[in-house]
Design a protein that fits this description.
mainly alpha, Endonuclease III, domain 1, single chain, 12 helices, 2 domains, globular, 208 residues, Endonuclease Iii, domain 2
């Protein structure tokens, strides 16, 4: 079964989570509801997520904007025509060139069909995407959460979410991944929305 959320249900789910978890309730009380972060289901969105791997959001956005300006339209066909020199001029690393081109080729060949993928269960989407070089669980998690609004994802590889969880729950900095996953399991079947509350907390605390 596919579990997702929408603009109509997002705040209600936040409030339900707050009733179950006093720490999440404290975030909502202090900072209000988080934004419902979304992106369109497109090749460009997946390129953006790849660019975000292991760099700041600002750096990734700068590279995306450079690609947009240089190409006029980010599509598989257009990006496959770019040389290494052109890609580097758009702040794309050599490694990420490989990842983006592999994704572009998969979409052109039809092995990845973004128009149909939203109909598939989370596990099947993860299996299809992680076959591609450079697309791991974190990239798939962000895609499922932001693009497809799948409701029950906790991105244990996301440093902001993990650090926010540790701080909010007063957990030791060396708390093992398995323990973090266990804490997040208490938020099922709405771990995605809980994670958005964590990100909201992380960003709000940094802004103070």
């Amino acid at each position: 079964m596919i579990h997702s959320f929408s603009e109509k249900t997002f705040k209600r789910i936040c409030n339900q989570l707050a009733k179950k978890d006093s720490h999440l309730a404290g975030v909502l009380k202090a900072y209000g509801h988080p934004p419902m972060w979304t992106r369109v289901n497109s090749f460009e969105s997946l390129v953006h997520i790849i660019l975000e791997q292991q760099v700041s959001l600002a750096s990734a956005l700068a590279a995306l904007k450079k690609l947009q300006e240089y190409t006029g339209h980010i599509s598989p066909e257009v990006l496959l025509k770019l040389s290494d020199t052109e890609m580097r001029a758009c702040y794309v690393s050599r490694q990420k060139m490989i990842y983006i081109r592999g994704l572009a080729e998969a979409i052109i060949s039809g092995s990845i069909d973004l128009a149909e993928i939203h109909q598939l269960p989370d596990a099947v989407i993860r299996e299809k995407l992680t076959v591609l070089k450079g697309i791991g669980n974190w990239t798939v998690d962000v895609y499922l959460m932001f693009v497809l609004q799948r409701a029950d994802i906790f991105p244990v590889g996301d440093l902001a979410a993990v650090n926010a969880l540790k701080r909010l729950k007063a957990l030791d900095k060396d708390t093992p991944k398995e323990a973090l996953i266990a804490v997040a399991a208490t938020w099922a079947p709405h771990r995605t929305v809980a994670t958005m509350i964590l990100w909201h907390y992380y960003l709000s605390e940094r802004a103070v």
